[in-house]
Amino acid sequence: MSPSTIHMVARLVAKPDAVAPLRVVLEQLLEPTRQEAGCYRYTLLQNQHDPTDFTFVEEWASDAAIDAHLQTSHIQAAFAQAQGLLAAAPDIRWYELVG
After folding, report:
1. pTM for the whole thing?
2. CA 70, CA 25: separation in Å to the nearest integer?
3. Which residues sit opposite 54 in a β-bridge?
4. pLDDT 10s digits, 23-77
5. Which is it for strands 53-60 and 39-46: parallel, antiparallel or unpaired?
6. Which residues contact 4 (CB under 8 A, 6 or more apart)?
7. In sequence order, what DSSP letters do the residues of 15-55 get, joined into one string?
8. Residue 88: helix, strand or coil by DSSP?
9. For residue 20, how far is the Cα from the chain centroid?
């Protein structure tokens, strides 16, 4: 993994009554996203102490790979399905490797 790759952390918080349905939506993203060109890592985590808290840890080859990812049909469908399940807007942050 090169220092020029882009690391992303995307945190999503479910409404308390929507944890299970949101988890299904998010899990459905794993395999198709991992098959995308430029995707080096795409991992979904769920907080052990707060089950409403989900985090994707991602690594991408380039901005262009991320832009293509965001336009895929599976991401667009997940955004639509998650609308009523989220307690707040997703917190998506982009990072570069420092060391």
Report:
1. 0.91
2. 15
3. 12, 46
4. 999 999 999 999 999 999 999 999 999 999 999 999 999 999 999 999 999 999 9
5. antiparallel
6. 96
7. -GGGHHHHHHHHHTTHHHHHTSTTEEEEEEEE-SS-TTEEE
8. coil
9. 16
The reported pLDDT for the residue numbered 1 is 47
Beta strands 6-13 and 39-46, pairing class: unpaired
User: 19-27 vs 73-82: helix axis angle to the nearest 10?
Assistant: 180
| Residue in the structure block whose two tokens are 């944890």 | 19
What whole-number distance in Å separates Cα of residue 12 and Cα of residue 15? 10
List the domains of the chain with CATH numbers.
6-96 (3.30.70.100)
Residue 87 — φ and ψ, nearest 5°? -80, -20
Residue 26 near residue 78, CB atoms below 8 Å: yes
